Amino acid sequence: MIKVLAIDDQFDNLAIIQMSLRLEGFEVVTSDNGREGIEKAESELPDIILLDMMMPYMDGYEVYQHLKRKKATKNIPVIMLTAVDQPQQMEKAKKMGMQDYITKPFDPLNLATRIRFFLDKAKKTT
Known about the structure:
Blueprint: E1 3-7, H1 11-23, E2 27-31, H2 34-44, E3 48-51, H3 60-69, E4 78-82, H4 87-96, E5 100-103, H5 108-125
Helix pairs in contact: 1-5, 2-3
């Protein structure tokens, strides 16, 4: 079973992600802030992380940089899932090494498809 960690400070977003991905057969772990998200990434070791950009304490970019510095989490693929729909932010996320940049509102079925695509792609390159 694919384990997804969703890090987002909006409860409604987490509920939609959790419900829709569970219906698609995923295991979903959630966190409502970056600090806790980092802790859960280290303890749960998910297959992929969905990361919001704008959160209290640490933004998504800071969380991503922290995850990439840790041996246990540096190879976990990350998809930015955010309401920020700006080309320069998309480019920044790609340059940092994130697998994808999905804007909210999102199509839950498309989200599951993209997660599977990036995990299949990662398996083929390892």
